[in-house]
Structure formats: structure tokens, C-alpha cells
Specification:
mainly alpha, two-stranded antiparallel sheet, DNA-binding, elongated, 2 strands, homodimer, 51% helix
Chain lengths: 144, 144
DNA sequence: TTGAATTCCTAGCAATTTTGTAGTATATTA
DNA sequence: TAATATACTACAAAATTGCTAGGAATTCAA
């Protein structure tokens, strides 16, 4: 039941962008240096966020990324779902395709649905702005 | 954020044992046949449950496994934690060793703690007896 | 107009974890 | 003593994760 580095890095990445939201476009290189994360790996993660329009970019010198909205308008849940795929504990709850026709009537699906709802409720109640505020007070260990 | 087959199989395995709780010792072979899960793999999963005394065993002919308590005395959370290790979304929340000393003061740890609490609350509120009752009405698809 | 900086895109790969298999030793019962 | 089980250990295939590599396309500044 682990969150992967993709989701965790995405949270740090977005928090970094939020903290520098008034500094124009921010390069991956500078984020990678500050956060001590591989540049090339960050590139792949931010691509996921760009595809869903959570961030926008320009190429070339002085290029980089910036948020498309105010930090208070993002939730942690949204960021995690874009990068992790889905927070569902089983594939059957992934949108679109229920691989098994009996699933709808299955005992355990009900449990996984409750777990998913509980997780979503938590992460959807926390905004990126909250992360920024808390980070300013507390810092970030980088390992979780 | 997926539950592995170990946890899912363990739930089916325990439900199977609960349904046959008055039939003496139940062999892995018969469970494997009914649930259509590899015998040898089930063996490894049930070993985890036996180690924590959720089930007891006897060897030899007519041997097998049975529950050590009434189905109503097990929670889904307990079964999952024994087989999955922990439901924590990050390693830093795993008991005993916090690998990073700054974690205690980290922004995101707080979030992961809330997620863990929410998940535990759900799975700890569902008993094995509930699974048995629902399974009798609804069945189990075997895929989640 | 040229060069530096930067995103964009694709492919691959090493390490780890998951999901099993296989074989043998040990115990129990009829 | 033969059949039936668990107990234990080791290994292996498959999938996923986490990351690396290289080059094309774009933009800006000197």
C-alpha cells in the first residue's frame, strides 16, 4: 500500500513551484538541485502534471514551468492521482474498465471502495497552499 | 497504492476457513481448489497468519488449518496488516525505525499519517464475520 | 545569427518487489 | 507402513519502480 516516489516527488515539486510562484518560469534544473532529485526523472513526472494542465511550460532559455492556478486551488489528492494513476487499492476500482463482471456483486470490492473513499477524503481536503504554509514552518525531510 | 495478492488472498483464505469453521482442520489443498489459488503460494501466506496465531495447524493426514478464534473476533485490518506488513503509505510510518530524524517535523509525514489513520479506521471496523455473511449473499469474484 | 539554455520525446535498463515453483524434511493418522 | 499433510528453504519468472541516456525542437540573449 505504498505511495511511489512519483507521487512523493510530485508533491515536493508542486510545493517548490508554489513557493516560487512569483518568480516566473522555474527550470527543472533548479528544482532538481533544491530538492535533490534526478533532473531527468523529475522531467518525466512534471510531464504528467503538464498533460493534465496542472502546470504550464515554455521552452528555451529562461524557460521552465509554473503553476496554472493559485496554490489554494490544488488539492494533494489531485496531484497524487495525476502522478500515481489512481489511489484505488485494487485495479477493479480503476475507472473505465471493470475487468470482472461479477465484481459489482463482490464482497471485497465493497471494502476496497470504502478504503478508497477514506483515502480520497483525506487527500482531497488538503490544499497545496497548506503544504506551502507548513513547509515554511517545518521544512521537509525529503524522505517521505 | 495497491493491496498485493498476499492481502487479497489472505482475506479469501480466512473467509474460507471461517465458513468451514465447524469442519475440523481444513487442508491447504482444499482451500486452493475452492479458491483457485496456487497451493504453494497459499502455504506461504497462511504461514504468516500462523506465525501471528490467527490460525493453528496440525500436520499429517486429516491435518490442516483452522481459526483460533470466532470470525467476529478478527478484523480485516488485522488480517491485512499481518500479510501486507503495514498499510502505511510511506516507510517512515512503519513501526520501530524512522529512518530519517527530521521526519517528525516533516510536512508530508503528517499527511501520510492521516491517510494511514483513515485506512486503518475503515479496515479495523470490518470483521471476518461480516465477510462471511456478505459472501453468503453475494459471492466473491476472485479478482479483488 | 549563433550559441546557450531549456523543454520535449523516446528508448532502454538496473534494481526491487511481487508472485509464484520446486523439492525435501517432518509429522500424523489409518 | 503408506498416504496425507504441514514446515521449511531456495530459487525463478514476471512485473513494476526508479532512473539514465541521447537527441530533437524551441526560445532568448548577445
Amino acid at each position: 500500500m505504498k505511495i511511489s516516489t512519483k507521487g512523493r516527488y510530485a508533491l515536493r515539486l508542486m510545493t517548490d513551484l508554489a513557493i516560487h510562484k512569483d518568480d516566473g518560469y522555474i527550470s527543472i534544473k533548479s528544482i532538481a538541485t533544491r530538492q535533490n532529485i534526478s533532473e531527468k526523472y523529475l522531467e518525466q513526472i512534471i510531464k504528467l502534471l503538464a498533460k493534465e494542465n496542472l502546470v504550464e511550460s515554455t521552452r528555451g532559455a529562461q524557460g521552465g514551468y509554473k503553476l496554472t492556478r493559485e496554490p489554494v486551488e490544488y488539492t494533494v489528492g489531485e496531484i497524487l492521482r495525476v502522478t500515481e494513476g489512481s489511489l484505488a487499492p485494487v485495479a477493479c476500482l480503476e475507472t473505465d474498465d471493470n475487468p470482472c463482471e461479477n465484481c459489482m456483486d463482490c464482497v471485497t470490492l465493497e471494502i476496497w471502495q470504502c478504503v478508497l473513499d477514506a483515502v480520497n477524503k483525506v487527500v482531497d481536503s488538503i490544499t497545496l497552499q497548506y503544504l506551502v504554509d507548513k513547509q515554511r514552518e517545518k521544512g521537509n525531510c525529503g524522505c517521505c
